[in-house]
Amino acid sequence: SANQMWGGRFSAGVDAIMEAINASISFDQRLAAQDIEGSRAHAAMLAATGIITDSDAEAIREGLLTVLSEIEGGAFEFSAALEDIHMNVEARLKDLIGEPAGRLHTARSRNDQVALDFRMWVRDQADAAISGIEALQRALLSQAEIGADWVMPGFTHLQTAQPVTWGHHMMAYVEMLGRDAARFRDARVRMNESPLGAAALAGTSFPIDREMTAQALRFDRPMANSLDAVADRDFALEFLGAASICAMHLSRLAEELVIWSSAQFRFVTLSDSFSTGSSIMPQKKNPDAAELIRAKVARIFGAQTALLIVMKGLPLTYSKDMQEDKEQTFDAADNLMLALAAMEGMVRDMTGNRDQLAAAAGSGFSTATDLADWLVRVLGLPFREAHHITGSLVALAEQKGCDLPDLSLEDMKSVHDGITGNVFDVLTVENSVASRISYGGTAPSCVHAQVARWKETLG
Ligand code: ARG
């Protein structure tokens, strides 16, 4: 039989395959709450502007609340024949209240309806992402506080570079995540305009009040162009962009946790509650959560790429291609929230192994730069010459199978006879990190200042 929403010009129903490719209800039922909230705001506006009667609006309002409770209670039977959440809700409303249900869709189209619902959903997810990020930042902050003065190797190329503090390393991620949260906030500001009232694409001849619905739905204002309102999904793309960058940061931290928890590094011990064992190797404690975060990031990047590709060739305004915007975004958002929560749990529960970090901090000639700086500061050598002399001393230590602080003063003098005994002061990792007091540097005093600043910011 013909479709109950647009059956007027149709004489036959659709093929089962057509229904399968066309229906979005299996996934867009996630928009039920947004759809019903949007419809309630629309109905209230239609009554306030005299487009429908107050009694019809009241019947619609009551009916929609019933539909919502049926959906929330799990009692609602979604129908693929009704295609999507918008038509499922409206059809049920008609069962419940009869004729007034047919007036709800006045001055509206599914095009502005879906743009609205999805925008509201993405807006909520931006808020959720910000909370998830802040929770993770708090976990990192407390790690930074515990180990503000713990020394560890700082790396470039994953080769020992200079000693840094554990707290400084934790705070690096707090900074990155701070920008991630800011990206979600920025995106939220731009997406917070209401498409409702754009109708199909051209606006409407009914005397609607778009300011009223925008306000009721917590938007800053209505979107200014009806074609744009139904045609763009840049708000979802911006969300996915912010999600991708945040996910990239999570993945780098995950990678570090995988490396750090290995028997070769032993920088951290992960908690049992965020690790798994092996079914064959009894000694194993695996960082699965970190590995899965590293991998789930692929889905988030994929979602952004997929939606960019869906959108890039579409003429204005709505094309059914755009129905493919939702599943990928849902999946990306779900996995981002899960990754943030798992990372928060891992970071909160992990134990930095202070002694092992300190032992590693001193190996690999990590204070060579301090030695070169000393030659510049105390002997007045040009840095390039100091660099060369230090290189020779590293080679000498390597030859002797020892570290820089283990060389004797005679060894030092054999390379440059101006060197004096107080050079050894700068060769300890503690003195090295303590000396890095330039703004943003790794000294414990700097770490404490940054921790205090972030505590204030996060409240
Ligand atoms: N299910 C559709 C979607 O997700 C809703 C909008 C349908 N609009 C239309 N003109 N067919 O995009």
UniProtKB/TrEMBL annotation:
Residues 365-434 form the Argininosuccinate lyase C-terminal domain. This is Argininosuccinate lyase. It comes from the Bacteria. NCBIfam families: argH. It catalyses: 2-(N(omega)-L-arginino)succinate = fumarate + L-arginine. Residues 8-302 form the Fumarate lyase N-terminal domain. Keywords: Amino-acid biosynthesis, Arginine biosynthesis, Cytoplasm, Lyase. GO terms for biological process: L-arginine biosynthetic process via ornithine. Signal peptide: none annotated.
